[in-house]
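DM from R.C. (forwarded with permission)

"hey, sorry to bug you on a friday — could you get me a structure for this? deadline for the figure draft is monday and I only need the backbone to look sensible"
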Amino acid sequence: MRKKKSAGMKAERSIRRIAFSKMTYYGILIFVCMLLTACGQEEISGENIYQVYYVSNSESKVEMHPYEMIAESSSDQLEELVKCLSTNPEKLEYKAPLAMGFQILHMNLEEGKLQLDMDAAYKNLPVTTEVLVRAAIVRTLTQLSEVNLVMMTVEGNQLYDNNGSTIGWMNAEQFIDNDGNEINTYELARVKLYFAGEDGTNLIAATREKRYSTSMLRERFVVEELIAGPSGQIEGLYPSINPNTKVLSVTTRDGVCYVNLDDNFLTVVNNVSTDVSIYSIVNSLSELSSINKVQILVNGEVPSTFSASTFERNLDIVTTLPK
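My reply, with the result:
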């Protein structure tokens, strides 16, 4: 259960370094003792119940355990959940994701976006374990009304997945709610992608079938495949997006897909206009039933050169391959 936002909680949306130094010495002792007793407790009841996610001992899945929140302010609630994620249970039936050999160097929360910077030891986690750790942290902390997105970095450097793609802002929806066995599985996707025509002024649709990791959002898969360009099996299709473009994050909310790219997106290729690049993304994502509109950001902002802040499907620039 999430506590409702209040005006007081909204007022706390400024950059802040989360640290237990805000509490008095004796307050820390009391608070930690209460947490050590409460974290990992199974049979609990109350009004302020959160789910804390841990990694199984086999490191093959994420396990959910109920927890009754003690703190009241949003900053103290964040500290409390982080403490739970750092505390292994007495029975050692599962592992706390923040007690697996690395430490948080600092945390910053601004306008619903929480950045966690880890030390270098984080990179020593096995690939599967690292995905589970991320899932546990993100799914736990985004329950807080003040935390909408989480980004994890290592000593200030961006994280990358196994495919070399940037791991940007994350929400709970990016991690599948299952027993953990599907973290490493792949699913066959059949998507319609819109690539540029020869002169770069129009788009041509092509269907692509490919297996992708179920830990990746379908929306992100579509954008990554557009950046990868046409396969070459169909003549007359050309890249619609600069292949050096990096995906910083992709999220969908209330039918709007937010695509955050780096500034390579603004450098056109093959005489493709910016509008054609934009609508290659918009039209391709609009083929998904959950998406009605698309907002494209470059380094987190809508470029001033864009004709609109959000875009809807545009079939006027779509044509077919010449026969």
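R.C.: lifesaver. Residues 174 and 290 are 14 Å apart (CA to CA).
me: no worries. The chain has six helices and 14 strands.
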